[in-house]
Amino acid sequence: MRSGDARHEILYAIRTNLAQDTSPPILSSPSPEGTGGQGVRTPIPRDLVARFREQLVAVGALCTAVRGETEAAAALARILTDAGARRVVGSDSAVVQRLLHAMGDGFELERLDRLSRDELFSCDAGVTTAQWGIAETGTLVLESAREQSRLLSLVPPIHVAVLSTRCICDSLGDALARVSPASHAVTFITGPSRTSDIELTLVVGVHGPQTVHVLLMEEA
Amino acid sequence: MTFERDARTALADGQLRGALRHATTLFGERRRAALATVPDWEGARDRARAIKDETLAHLDRYLEEFTANAERAGAQVHWARDAAEACDIIGRIAQQRGARTVVKSKSMASEEIHLNAALARRGIEPVETDLGEYIVQLAGETPSHIVVPAIHKTKAQIAALFADKLGIALSDDVATLAAAARQALRRRFAEADLGISGVNFAVAETGTILILENEGNARLTTSLPRTHLALMGIEKVIPRFADLEVFLQLLPRSGTGQALTAYQSLLTGTKRRPEDEGPDELHIVLLDNGRSQMLASAVTRQTLACIRCGACLNACPVYRQIGGHAYGSVYPGPIGAVLTPQLLGTGRSSELPYASSLCGACRDVCPVKIDIPAVLLHLRAQAVDRGAGKRRVLERLAFWAYATVMARPRLLEWLVRAARTLRILPPLAAWTKWRDLRPLAPRSFREQWRAGLRDQRDPNA
Lengths: 220, 461
Known about the structure:
The structure holds 2 protein chains of 2 kinds.
Chain A: H1 2-20, H2 48-58, E1 62-67, H3 68-82, E2 87-90, H4 94-101, E3 108-111, H5 117-121, E4 125-129, E5 132-134, E6 139-143, E7 158-164, E8 168-169, H6 172-178, E9 185-189, E10 194-195, E11 203-204, E12 211-218
Parallel strand pairs in A: 1-12, 2-3, 2-4, 4-7, 5-8, 7-12
Antiparallel strand pairs in A: 5-6, 6-9, 10-11
Chain B: H1 2-11, H2 14-36, H3 41-57, H4 59-72, E1 76-80, H5 83-96, E2 101-104, H6 108-112, H7 115-121, E3 125-128, H8 131-138, H9 155-166, H10 174-191, E4 194-197, E5 201-203, E6 208-213, H11 217-223, E7 227-233, E8 237-238, H12 244-255, E9 263-268, E10 281-287, H13 298-301, H14 311-315, H15 317-322, H16 333-344, H17 361-365, H18 372-385, H19 392-406, H20 409-422, H21 429-432, H22 445-450
Parallel strand pairs in B: 1-10, 2-3, 2-4, 4-7, 5-8, 7-10
Antiparallel strand pairs in B: 5-6, 6-9
Helix pairs in contact in B: 3-12, 9-10, 16-18
């Protein structure tokens, strides 16, 4: 089998080339288990929620804080109305479905599993949950094992993410330690889709959403 | 020499140089601002380099571990010795799935193996979806910067290009142009049978691949088509999942000056349940293409630590003046000048190690502390050993004469005096063509020293 040959040949080439090197390393570096580089975190620990909200604003995302699901449903309706969204798709998450159905009239609620690709492309807003928030960077973490959020957080021009205040991590490292290994796709989202490819002028919403709105929910 | 010719063409292009100056300066400033918020940047660099060194020293083991874990999660891993084999594997996978259109997110490795041309030969249309790459592809050009591929094109040029190729009205509004590309590319995403992406990091411990981006096109490429194919150089592997933290701290800050790019996709194998979202198949192609040979010495091996941030391009006084195209290679700038000759071996790329003033700015900004000047010198020495240096005899004679004179103070003094009196200078045409030689001082330091400088006391003492 040709591919098997390639594998053996590449591994053999790696081993023989590595064996040729007798010189000492040209840079003295600490061992990877060393402590260097751990200090990238913000030195003063502050209120996680406040820091997360601050960073969300800094990266161009919006945030609305609510207490309990009744308040959340009202806020969601307001967010969608203000953004001019009519066709709205929610993920299969139970809380998202409860919020959408508590919003009242004025929206066309679609179901992801019944939408064709083109129909999904013409939806105005996707509503999902986020599994984690990262205070250090204003980042949302979405796990595929938890709900179908991969396309809804990407394709419509507006993405609303429901996040519990209890799920905010301090740093990127904390979030990496917490993500579920059961997810085949974990997505980190920091603000809206952006590009500076034309004359370095910032444009948001080039392929992904133009608006990322976090519905930060405290348990009632 | 083609590099010299192309560099001269670039230097004569005022618009290109203006765009380059603007872009490289802005990226440099953003990078510096992003670093200022990090308390222990040096520590992070050291740690990242140590992780890379550890990985490369046991690259065979980590690649096998990565392969086993990726396959356990449902991915299929392919090995490609060179560019032709990689194109072959990818072309076959595309053909077997009846693919007519392939959407691509940015991948330098795919540029390296000239994948688009190989797919086109099989009657498969590759569509670049990163906005910059899309512009470059529509124009029939090649990228000029690792991070900002269309850095060499103005808004007006892009507007004219879109009007011609996409049939939209001319517009000088960047948001309108980006929206037109979004619209056009959505159709391509919807019809694509295969999505091809690059890989920024591959985790041995879990079999995970990580892709960073800002636009969302890599997310679309890796989630909409039924088949996702990821192409990666064998040096992209890192040992542990937790190692991602330090690289995620370094890469966006060095590349675009962001604390984090808009999106990171961490993909481990294929979907676990039929109702999950995402492609049915994940193919990962591991590309050697000259990389394993770089492991043979510690000097060349560090080239493989590169995380493709582009910071050395923005810092390089040569790149800042001539841009990416003059290098005539997929990888431009300082890293391109060391990477390309090692990947391609001979030909035009052997000129590239000379496309540097050895100022060391690249080494200073490199997030993984690659000593690029050391590699440049190593490759120059190799070129001389191969006899590629043109004026080898003259050069040797000149250095022999220099060594002889400098070791004999009286001879030097006599020669300097003679040169001053007769106003003759050594023939250094290759040097003086681009630089002014400083005239000899009317009195040399030795003469001043003897004439009383020795007895003067330092007034500050």
